[in-house]
Design brief:
alpha/beta; Rossmann fold; 8-stranded mixed β-sheet; globular
Amino acid sequence: MNTFDPDAHTKQSRQTWSEAAPRYDKLSSSLFGPTAEAFAEFAGVRRGWRVLDVACGPGLAARAAAARAGETGRVLACDLAPGMIELAAARPPRARSAPIEWRVLDAENLDVPAGAFDAVLCQLGLMLFARPQRALEGMRRAAAPGAPVSCLVQGRRHAMRFTGLVFDAIVARAPELRAPSGAPTLFAFGPDGVLEEAFAMAGLTEIVTRRLSGTFRFESAEAYWNVMTEGSGRTRAMLETLKPEIQAKIKADVLRRAGKRRAGRGVEVAYEFVMARGLAPSRR
């Protein structure tokens, strides 16, 4: 098994997610809009607040936070991938929302003023970072004393079938693609207590968590496969390293498993997210 190189992982992530930005935006917009709204509410964003959105991607959580902060608030949305920032910045703002500044920044080296934000958010980013604990500590430093820091991650592997179906099929057919020791995995923060422990280690207090679960509906098993392979930067990158015949077997496995989740004329695939919120320490 290869040795994990965090710097190489971060460099590759920047390129992969930049290239995937238009495809991921389509996936994100069609599926994750309600999740972003629920997350901004959970984070407790209020009118007039200064908000930092880390690993903002195409900007769903940033825009949800901006709507809650209103015209007197402001949002800084940052992402490692320039392609994501370019795409997000090109979209017109919501009416009566806080202005959003879009900036390319590495979550593990947050170059923002300490204590400058009334809330810090990170939706579907923490489990992708090479050094997630460093990123959490940076978020805590960016938060004003007593301000909430909130993260949303993928849930338990058995419950997050939306991504689990595909990843299980990939590693079954190509076990060499299993993440090496120390590498980030999509489901790392899903089990009970793991996200809370990471928040506590970062110095956050009064930690609360909540799980979001439901199903995503697709017209067919083929439509589900297309969404997962065309929209997700990481999944597509993994598949492209494999021979065509192995890719074909993985697709057949996924179509068979997704087909068992038929509901009416389509298929429904279960999802689970975990949200955590903790407060930055107050000054004494």
